[in-house]
């Protein structure tokens, strides 16, 4: 796990109130206790931490460009947005 | 018609963080007014208020709750928890109840913090729970969630009369049989830079003290906090052997339809008379009035004239407790109801602090100095708001 993946994982773990070391990349955030408000809060922290704007609409989480179905997909989404920022 | 009794009370304010402490402080003549402490207070010209101090907050508050609860919601939750515990109602008994709260400014600290972040500090985003945190109904909603209340629940906002309007509406829910139990009161947390700055602009705040009905009065002093009561149908309360603090017997509300800030004698008189009529009380039966008594020139003059008109030359004892707990705006009527309960339940009338020489023009029996022992069978609690909205509660002693 590189630095970006570790920081994203820590943010998700913090919002889910679990130990970051217990999180695996294939975990579904909802399954580890991140409800919809928790995900919205996690995305806010991610935006602040990385200086990016995450295209996530809580009304239609399945139809946005930002996949939250697993920790790995969130990490990949953040990586894409950070590199697009340049 | 059903009768409505108060079977629980809770509060947090500058005098104390619970009901026994607050009533003891009111009767001992203590004041919660002191130097204000918050960010940028040095940029204000008014720097006194009745601010809550040394409160540890709500035990067991989670991180999620911390991000959802503005200070006004925290005050409301603390007051509701105390009231529910005092009433001794089970979760099942509370399920049909609702909660109606008065607040003038709702989550103003949340508005302020986030405007500061985006305007003054140039930040690009605010926390995602900003909207559910600042909304006026956040406090009743969280009380409903916490205690499982499924009846009519919402906030009402009528500036300084908010809490009395809330209590009056909840009283009618019970009296008219729609709910056996209701929670009601008010919550306000606007002692912060923006809140004071706005009031300062209106030039009605005193720079040096609150002196209701005194000839030297020079304005109001703001306070904060919450007070919440459990209102219960009398038969329901009796059946479970509940302790009863007082009966709410009537409620009167009127609008001046005149000026947006200047008080009207006529509107105040009509609200007091409506409360008396609903309670089936004659003016002679009322032994105490907790006045709105803000300590402004205009309010106290108009209120004294209204009291003379309703009660005649030998009227009831009158006091204003605003120099003790401050003018807590949308919560103030609820805080003042504690003084009314002390009069009815303990036979002790809290004094009007700050009033040393009653304005000779008033012709009203103002209780000054120390608490006065009196047998009070019935009392009124006045709230008169900016906007010309008047809300008066009539209460009776439990025989």
UniProtKB/TrEMBL annotation, chain A:
Carrier domain location is 2-82
Q: Which domain of life is it from?
A: Bacteria
Q: Name one Pfam family in it.
A: PP-binding
Q: What is this protein called?
A: Phosphopantetheine-binding protein
Species this protein is from: Pseudogemmobacter lacusdianii
From TrEMBL, chain B:
Q: What are the protein's UniProt keywords?
A: Acyltransferase, Cell inner membrane, Cell membrane, Membrane, Nodulation, Transferase, Transmembrane, Transmembrane helix
Give a yes or no for keyword Nucleotide-binding in this entry.
no
Where is this chain's protein located in or outside the cell? Cell inner membrane
Show the SUPFAM superfamilies listed in the entry.
Answer: Thiolase-like
One Pfam family named in its UniProt record: ketoacyl-synt
Which Gene3D superfamilies does this UniProt record tie to the protein? 3.40.47.10
Q: Which GO terms describe its molecular function?
A: acyltransferase activity
| Chief location of this protein within or outside the cell | membrane
CDD domains per the UniProt record, alphabetical: KAS_I_II
Q: Which InterPro entries match?
A: Beta-ketoacyl_synthase, Ketoacyl_synth_C, Ketoacyl_synth_N, PKS_Beta-ketoAc_synthase_dom, Thiolase-like, Thiolase_acyl_enz_int_AS
Q: Which SMART domains match?
A: PKS_KS
- List residues of the Ketosynthase family 3 (KS3) domain: 1-397
* UniProt keyword annotation of Transmembrane helix present: yes
Q: Which domain of life is it from?
A: Bacteria
Briefly state the protein's biological role. Proposed to synthesize NOD factor fatty acyl chain. Involved in the synthesis of a highly unsaturated fatty acid moiety, which forms part of a lipo-oligosaccharide that is responsible for host specificity.
Entry's PANTHER family? 3-OXOACYL-[ACYL-CARRIER-PROTEIN] SYNTHASE, POLYKETIDE SYNTHASE-RELATED
Q: Which family does it belong to?
A: Belongs to the thiolase-like superfamily. Beta-ketoacyl-ACP synthases family.
**What is this protein's name?**
Nodulation protein E
Q: What is the lineage of its organism?
A: Bacteria, Pseudomonadati, Pseudomonadota, Alphaproteobacteria, Rhodobacterales
């Amino acid at each position: 796990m590189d630095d970006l993946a570790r920081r994203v994982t820590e943010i998700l773990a913090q919002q889910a109130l679990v130990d970051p070391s217990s999180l695996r990349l294939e975990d579904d955030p909802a399954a580890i206790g991140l409800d919809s408000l928790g995900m919205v809060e996690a995305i806010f922290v991610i935006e602040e931490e990385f200086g990016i704007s995450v295209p996530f609409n809580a009304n239609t989480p399945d139809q946005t460009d930002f996949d939250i179905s697993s920790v790995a997909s969130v990490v990949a989404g953040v990586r894409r947005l950070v590199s697009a920022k340049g | 018609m059903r009768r409505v009794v108060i079977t629980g009370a809770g509060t947090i304010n500058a005098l104390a963080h619970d009901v026994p402490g607050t009533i003891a402080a009111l009767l001992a003549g203590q004041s919660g007014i002191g130097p204000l402490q918050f960010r940028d207070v040095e940029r204000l010209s008014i720097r006194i208020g009745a601010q809550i101090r040394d409160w540890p907050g709500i035990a067991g508050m989670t991180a999620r709750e911390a991000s959802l609860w503005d200070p006004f919601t925290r005050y409301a939750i603390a007051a509701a928890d105390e009231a529910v515990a005092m009433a001794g109602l089970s979760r099942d008994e509370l399920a049909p109840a609702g909660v109606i709260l008065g607040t003038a400014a709702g989550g103003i600290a949340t508005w302020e913090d986030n405007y500061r972040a985006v305007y003054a500090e140039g930040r690009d985003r605010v926390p995602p729970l900003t909207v559910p945190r600042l909304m006026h109904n956040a406090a009743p909603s969280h009380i409903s969630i916490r205690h499982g209340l499924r009846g009519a629940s919402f906030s009402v906002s009528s500036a300084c009369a908010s809490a009395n309007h809330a209590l009056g509406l909840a009283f009618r829910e019970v009296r008219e049989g729609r709910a056996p139990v209701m929670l009601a009161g008010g919550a306000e947390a606007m002692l912060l830079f923006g809140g004071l700055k706005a009031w300062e602009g209106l030039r009605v705040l005193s720079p040096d003290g609150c002196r209701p009905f005194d000839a030297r009065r020079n304005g109001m002093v703001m306070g904060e906090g919450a007070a919440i009561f459990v209102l219960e149908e009398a038969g329901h309360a009796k059946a479970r052997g509940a302790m009863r603090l007082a009966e709410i017997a009537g409620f009167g509300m009127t609008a001046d339809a005149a000026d947006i800030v200047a008080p009207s004698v006529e509107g105040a008189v009509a609200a007091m008379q409506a409360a008396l009529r609903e309670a089936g009380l004659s003016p002679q039966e009322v032994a105490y009035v907790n006045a709105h008594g803000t300590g402004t020139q205009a309010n106290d003059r108009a209120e004294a004239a209204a009291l003379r008109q309703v009660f005649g030359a030998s009227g009831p004892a009158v006091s204003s407790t605003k120099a003790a707990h401050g003018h807590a705006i949308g919560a103030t009527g609820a805080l003042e109801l504690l003084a009314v309960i002390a009069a009815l339940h303990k036979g002790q009338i809290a004094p009007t602090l700050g009033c040393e020489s009653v304005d000779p023009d008033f012709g009203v029996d103002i209780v000054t100095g120390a608490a006065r022992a009196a047998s009070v069978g019935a009392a009124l609690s006045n709230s008169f708001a900016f906007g010309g909205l008047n809300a008066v509660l009539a209460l009776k002693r439990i025989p």
